[in-house]
Structure formats: C-alpha cells, structure tokens
TrEMBL record:
The keyword Metal-binding applies. The lineage of its organism: Eukaryota, Viridiplantae, Streptophyta, Embryophyta, Tracheophyta. It holds the Pfam family PLAT. This is Lipoxygenase. It comes from Carya illinoinensis. Its cofactor is Fe cation. InterPro entries: LipOase, LipOase_C, LipOase_CS, LipOase_Fe_BS, Lipoxy_PLAT/LH2, PLAT/LH2_dom.
Length: 701
C-alpha cells in the first residue's frame, strides 16, 4: 500500500473507528467482537488520516431501495435450454456505508456526485464467471450495469444504504467468481458488501469492506472476489488471470512516485521522517539498514529532498504561475467587441476572488473569530454581554475550522475554483494588512468609505446616500438602526454609568484579548475604538452583530442565485486576453466565440464551483434568524430585557414587510421590473434551502 507518510507516533487506529479519506486505502477487514467492530488492516501506513467514528454495531435503519429486495428473481433456466441462447435476470444488492460525520468538503463533493450521476457518471458493475468462454478463451463477463438511484439517495442519513443493479445473463454464464467495480464519481465510497441474487442455489456474496476510489485517481476497474476460497492450484479457469493481475498490481514494481490512491504494497526505509530542506534542525537519520536497524515502511517513492539525496521530500513544491490582466478599451468594431467581452469576464473572475477572499472570508469569518474565542475565554456564560452575543457566535468556530480544512487550504476548493489559485490567502492577508479597519466595518462608515454616501447629520442614519436606489444600503440601514437601538437598550440597562463599563474586568479582558491577541498584528493601530463608555460598547457590539448577521447574509446567501451561472460571472479564466503578437491571436480571430468558451472554466470546474456555491448558499433547517432566539421568553431572567427583545423582533418583522413593499415599487428600478431579481438578501426570514433571502444570527455556513 502506497501512502505519503507513516502513522505518526501514538496515532493508532482504534477498534471503534476506521480511516476515511480520499487519500487513503486501508482495505480493512471488520470483525465483530462483542458490541463493536475491530479493524485488522493489512498494511496501514497513512498519508493524511482523519478518523471517522463508527457507532456501536446496532443495526440501524437502512435506506429503503426502489425495489423489494425479497421478491423472487427469475432463476437460471434448465440446462436443456442453454443452447437456445435463453437469458435470465439477476440482481446485485450493493451495501455502501456512509460516513458517520461529513465535513463541508465531503458534502460538497457528495452533492456534485449526485448531480453528475444523473448525466451518466455512475458506479458501474460487471460480473465475471468462474468459467472460460470456449470461443474467446477469455473469462465470461456480463453486461455492465449501473448502480440505481445514487442521486435519489445522496442525502439519506442511514448508516448503510442499499443500491441495486440488474444484469441480463446468458443461461450458460455459470457462477460469478468476481465482480468488477468502476467508480465514475469524483469521490471515493466505502463498499461493504455485494450480494447477487437470481442464480440457482444460494446468493453469491462478495465481502468488500474497502474504499473504491474514483476512476480519475484509479483508472482501472476494481476487482472483488466472491467469498469462495481457492488455493492457487484450485483457482477456476475464469478467475486465474484476474487473480494474477490483482497480485501484480498490488505488488507494484518498486519504481516511480506512488499516487495517493495507489493500492501498492512495497518496502522502503524510514528516510522520510525529517525535512532537511526546512533547515538542518529538521534533519533526521534514516531508520532501517546496517547503522540503525529498523522495520521497513511502505514505499512512497517521492523525489529526494534538495539538500539530502538520501532523504525523501515531504512536500510537493508548487510551480510558479505567470500572469499578464492589460488595459482594454471599449469596443469600436467586431474584433474589439469580443476582446471587450473577454475583458469583462476577466474582471468578473477577479472580482469573484475579491468577493470570496476579502469581503466574505476576511471581513466576516476571519475577523469575527478572535472576538468569539475571547468571549468564551474571558466572559462567563452568565455575563450579560456574553448572553447578548451568544446567538451571534453559533457554529462560527466550527464552520471556520471546516473551511480551513476544505475550502481555503492548499489545493482546496477556493484555490482550485478561483483565479488567484495558490495565492488566494495571500490576497486575503494583503487586504487585512492594507485596508481592514474595525472602525470602518460598521455599515454607515463603510458606505462613506466606499464613496456611496456622505456624512449628513440631518438624515436618520447620519449620512446621505449618493445612490438612492441602492437596495443593500437602504435595507441594510434599516437593520443596522434596529440592531443599534436594541443593543443600546440592552447596554443601558446593564451599564447605566460609564464607570461600570470601565470596571467590568471580564468585559475589558474580552475586548483587550480580542484586539491584542486575536488581532495582534494590528494591535498598535490608532483606529481601534476605545471601550470606556456606553457609546463605545454599543458601537463595538452593533458592529459585531452586523457582521455576523446581515453583512454575512448579504455576501453569502446570494452566491448561487447571482453567480451560479458561470458564463455570466466566471470564478476563473483559463486563457488570457490575446494580443496581436500572441500565437493564440489567429485562433481567436478565426472563431472568437469558441475562444471565449474555451477561456471559461471547464465543465468539471464549472460543476464543482456550482456545487460549492449551491452548498454555501443553503440555509439549514435549524437556522436561527435575526430577531429569533432559543427560548425567547426565558433566555434571560430580566423581564425588561425580554420585553425589549420582543420589541426588537417586532421591528425586524416590520423591516421585512418594508422590504417586500420596496420590491413591488416600480420606481425602484434596481429591485423591481421586468427581468429584475427582487432584492431579498436582507429580508430577515427564510425557509431552508437556497432561497436568496434570510439573515441568520450568525456565520453558520
């Protein structure tokens, strides 16, 4: 088995868990012992492991399949009719084990597989007989059959899900001794068992208990043999070649770099523990050999490090990416019109990256996390400010952790779907260093900073919009004002005097740690607000609640409705805008439309991106929206505060009605009219799913 590095010290595969990763092949056997499973892996060196907990072996619900598994299946015809070419049907019942816990990346890819399954990228099975075809001198094989209902059952939550496939066999087929499995999905799945019914006698069982990799990672068909054992000399003629092939493939040839999806068992010394390229202090001696005897490990075959030819490299070095984004002016003829279309597409792709990495990730997810961490560390759960912030911190730490694993990580979804690629997080960091300011993150200050409003103390919100029909601003200011009023009432109730704020050790420690530790790289900036009186506290808290609720909602939940049609707003471009001296310029002139389409993301990239933004734009059924709280009448023991919260909730409901009224106002052409999508991103309530509306209390997706 080829993997990238060994199990790290102390990382043991426990009996109640099994490894689940697209980068790992275990091929374990599960043994039932008392009330749990134990795992006896054959060879278990791992590249990157994540343990997925298995529940106790209590046979829970299995997904209902589309056909009755126990109804009779036609059996093989009598031998005297075999020469007439009669056919009969057999059915395979395939049991796939779901992961007990899926991260965000798993859900996205699972959703993608459900979509692509509908267009023919299926799981395919083929039976192999124990007999040889006398005409071809090759093993008898059935027709290929697809696994049914994968897309329909993609969201089933049962521990095990049953699928079926049907085969039409010649009556002379014999008994199947092997089955070939091809996974045309993007993601691995854990295949537990296959039972083939319809032959004379008992069903034929295949106990697989193995991950089946995607064909893109493992191009060959996966071979599983039935549960009938054979000594080598007793192997039926139809299975001999498969048996030999499986062994050859498993042994490997001792050459080349092993891919993460390879199932190859080979030997090597422990020359991969150190990383001398990081510095001499990270060098480690080779374990295994005359000098330091040690058991061998599974060979991975990575290239040697730059500084020590005997040490295997640990990290793949990324290749540099060159760019050239030149000035394009408005069109004057047909040729420049196509160049203009390309230029607009490139601008959209760049803007999509800025939206995701700066406005979305940095300004909501990342900037809020230090305040949430410090709140849990420094304020008691009984602290009134903690109680105020509690619903606005829900799930954020968890979703940020998942994002670091699957979205913003190296070669993650963001890097693979957006133009900045491997420089994605550097762009986010550059924006944090150069332009992020907490004092500018409140809505009025942000609108003024962006040049769409000017200060005006005579106006209700202290500013005048320069674009009056600006739905985000006009709706947002209503929510900002209602939130600010609620927070002010709350703060004034608990802090009637400024001295109470200054002397609140927990409160001051929370804010101090948020700034000086959580945002330590910018802690010396003069623009940080002080926390000395009620106005300071109201401003800080309102800003945090705004960012967690309405700002994140406006940035996140419209991604699929507004950007899901990739030709209109591509997240990346694969070809540059050609100039006259470029080799590609001739092909551009010959067929500019073809060139434009080839510059857009590929079908696979497009499908992946659509699946991602569809997931990110989805409200969960247990979403909690602005103006709502769990136990709304008892979340605090202060009845005056409960009453104030009910008033806030009522005001939020009125804002929703006002937004509905505005969306029907024909004079507001940016939100009402033929072909104009009503602006509902800041409409507070929503049902589950992709609705392009709804303001959850927190950054929960």
């Amino acid at each position: 088995m080829a993997m990238a590095k060994e199990i790290m010290g102390g990382s043991l595969i426990q009996r109640s868990s099994f490894v689940s990763s697209s980068k790992v092949f275990l091929n374990p056997s599960f043994q039932k012992k008392q009330n749990h499973f134990s795992v006896n892996p054959l060879v278990v060196p791992l590249e990157k492991t994540r343990l997925v907990r298995l529940r106790k072996v209590v046979r829970g619900p299995v997904a209902a399949i589309s056909e009755d598994l126990v109804k009779p299946v036609p059996v093989a015809v009598p031998a005297d009719k075999a020469d007439k070419g009669d056919k009969f049907k057999v059915r395979a019942v395939v049991t796939v084990r779901n992961k007990n816990k899926e991260d965000l990346k798993d859900k996205i890819v699972k959703h993608l597989d459900a979509i692509t399954d509908k267009i023919g990228m299926n799981v395919v099975l083929q039976l192999v007989s124990t007999e040889i075809d006398p005409k071809t001198k090759a093993p008898k094989k059935s027709n290929e059959a697809i696994l049914k209902d994968w897309s329909k059952k993609s969201n089933v939550k049962a521990e095990r899900v049953n699928y079926t496939a049907e085969f039409m066999l010649n009556s002379s087929f014999g008994v199947p001794g092997a089955i070939l499995v091809t996974n045309n999905h993007q993601k691995e799945f854990f295949l537990e068992t296959i039972t083939v019914e319809g032959f004379a006698g008992d069903p034929v069982h295949f106990f697989c208990n193995s991950w089946v990799q995607s064909r893109k990672d493992h191009p060959g068909k996966r071979i599983f043999f039935s549960n009938k054992p054979y000594l080598p000399s007793e192997t039926p003629a139809g299975l001999r070649s498969l048996r030999e092939k499986e062994l050859r493939d498993t042994r490997g040839d001792g050459k080349g770099v092993r891919k993460l999806s390879d199932r190859i068992y080979d030997f090597d010394v422990y020359n991969d523990l150190g990383n001398p390229d990081r510095g001499i202090e990270f060098a480690r001696p080779t374990l295994g050999g005359e000098k330091i005897p040690f058991p061998r490990r599974c060979r991975t075959g990575r290239l040697p490090s730059d500084t020590d030819m005997h040490a295997e490299s640990r990290v793949e070095k990324p290749l540099p990416i060159s760019r050239s984004k030149h000035v394009v002016t408005p069109p004057v003829d047909a040729t420049t019109n196509w160049l203009w279309q390309l230029a607009k597409a490139h601008v959209c792709s760049n803007d999509a990256g800025v939206h995701q990495l700066v406005n979305h990730w940095l300004r909501t997810h990342a900037s809020l996390e230090p305040f949430i961490l410090a709140a849990h560390r420094q304020m008691s759960a009984m602290h009134p400010i903690f109680k105020l912030l509690d619903p606005h911190m829900r799930y954020t730490l968890e979703i940020n952790g998942l994002a670091r694993q699957s979205l913003i990580n190296a070669d993650g979804v963001i890097e693979s779907c957006f133009t900045p690629g491997r420089y994605s997080m550097e762009i986010s960091a550059a924006a944090y260093k150069s332009s992020w300011r907490f004092d500018m993150e409140n809505l009025p200050a942000d609108l003024i900073r962006r040049g769409v409003a000017v200060p005006d103390p005579t106006q209700p919100h202290g500013l005048k919009l320069l674009i009056e029909d600006y739905p985000y601003a006009t709706d947002g200011l209503l929510i900002w004002s209602a939130t600010e009023n609620w927070v002010r009432t709350y703060v004034n109730y608990y802090y009637p005097e400024s001295s109470l704020i200054c002397n609140d050790n927990e409160l001051q420690a929370w804010y101090s740690e948020s700034v000086n530790v959580g945002h330590s790289d910018l802690r010396h900036k003069s623009w940080w607000p002080t926390l000395a009186n009620a106005d300071d506290l109201v401003s800080i808290l309102t800003t945090l609640i705004w960012l967690a609720s309405a700002q994140h909602a406006a940035l996140n939940f419209g991604q699929y409705p507004y950007g899901g049609y990739v030709p209109n707003r591509p997240p990346l471009m694969r070809r540059l805008i050609p100039e006259e001296n470029d080799p590609e310029y001739a092909s551009f002139l010959a067929d500019p439309q073809k060139y434009f389409l080839s510059a857009l993301p590929s079908v696979l990239q497009t499908t992946k991106f659509m699946a991602v933004v569809d997931t990110l734009s989805t409200h969960s059924p247990d979403e909690e929206y602005l103006g709502e709280r769990q136990q709304p009448s008892t979340w605090t023991g202060d009845t005056e505060v409960v009453e104030a919260f009910y008033q806030f909730s009522a005001e939020i409901q009125q804002i929703e009605k006002e937004i509905e009224r505005r969306n029907l106002d024909a004079s507001l052409r940016n939100r009402c009219g033929a072909g104009v999508l009503p602006y509902e991103l800041l409409a507070p309530s929503s049902g589950p799913g992709v609705t392009c509306r709804g303001v959850p209390n927190s950054v929960s997706i």
